[in-house]
Amino acid sequence: MPKAFLNGVSLYYEDKGAGIGIPLLFLHGLTSSMIEFKKDISYFKEKYRVITLDFRGHGQSTKPSIYTINDHITDVLRLLDYLEIEKVNIIGSSMGSYIAQGVSIQAPNKIHKLILVSPKAEGKTSSTKRLIKKYEDELKPLNLNDDEKFEYLSRYIYYNLDAVEKENKKKGPFLTLEQRTIANKALEGFDFRNDLCRIKAETLVISGRYDGLNPPVHGMEICKLIPKSRIIIFEKSGHNPAIEERNKYLKVIDEFLIR
Q1: 3-state SS assignment for residue 225
Q2: Distance CA 14, CA 24 (A)
Q3: Under a CB-based contact definition with an 8 Å cutoff, are residues 122 and 192 in contact?
Q4: SS3 231
Q5: pTM over 0.85
Q6: Which residues are CB-neighbours of 162 under 8 A, at least 6 positions away?
Q7: DSSP state, 56?
Q8: How far apart are alpha carbons 183 and 212 in whole angstroms?
Q9: How far apart are CA 37 and CA 91, in angstroms?
Q10: Would strands 111-117 and 88-93 be described as parallel, antiparallel, or unpaired?
């Protein structure tokens, strides 16, 4: 797996596929890695040049003791320059969708099409903290630690929990508690809402009806603010439509990219 020393860190990435046309960049979620897109890469590399990376603080990339969402955004832009990519399509999932918004705001002419999966446009309140607050009366008598609370609340995050848990067992490397805390802190306080009007790319928003972390109302808000955008709500999905409604997810993305 190649790595590039950019913006003060080593970023591990993959560059696969020999498809013609505009490359496709996948941006993963919080505490995850490029392994999140293993099946997507296998599917799309027959049609596109597919690029993925481990964000700083994640996977096999450098894990600094402090960083911000702006560092993530700069890392992506530097990697695109390093790979000499002038135009790109982006698929960002959860945290990846936040970073994708930032990249598309800072370099609007570089992004051809933008797909935001399970997104929100601001992080003044952590999605996880908000969910814990919402169910605090239910959680209180259980006396759980943070990891146990998140595991318990998964029933409010996913529609097809069994499918998600089965797939997540295959992922890694996993972050330590300290690394997860640092990664979460990097997302504190972001707010792109005043700048989403600058995005020029045709944009598709995908939200899961039962997503307790980033409910569809957040996707709808994004669509009101990005000029050329539309939303599709997956009726049998929570926070991970790529797993929960796999066939529909691939069909929707295929159709959007070839239009």
Answers
A1: helix
A2: 12
A3: yes
A4: strand
A5: yes
A6: none
A7: T
A8: 20
A9: 10
A10: parallel
Tokens (6 digits) for 92: 């960002």
What are the residue ranges of helices labelled H in the chain?
Answer: 38-44, 69-82, 95-106, 127-134, 136-139, 146-153, 161-168, 177-185, 216-225, 241-244, 246-258
Any idea how long the chain is? 259
The two tokens of residue 108 are: 């609007």
Beta carbons of 230 and 220 less than 8 angstroms apart: no
Q: What tokens were used for 97?
A: 């969708």
Range of the domain at 194: 3-258
pLDDT by 10s per residue, the chain, length 259: 799 999 999 999 999 987 778 999 999 999 999 999 999 999 999 899 999 999 999 999 999 999 999 999 999 999 999 999 999 999 999 999 999 999 999 999 999 999 999 999 999 878 988 899 999 999 999 999 988 998 999 999 999 999 998 887 766 668 998 999 999 999 999 999 999 999 999 999 999 999 999 999 999 999 999 999 999 999 999 999 999 999 999 999 999 999 8
Note if the bond before 173 is cis, omega within 30 degrees. yes
- The domain spanning residue 179 has which CATH number? 3.40.50.1820
Strand partners, 25: 51, 90
Domain count, the chain: 1
Q: In what order do the strands lie in the sheet with 9-16?
A: 3-6, 9-16, 50-53, 24-27, 88-93, 111-117, 202-208, 229-234
What would the two tokens of residue 257 be? 């990219």
CA-based torsion, 146, 160, 30, 109: positive or negative: negative
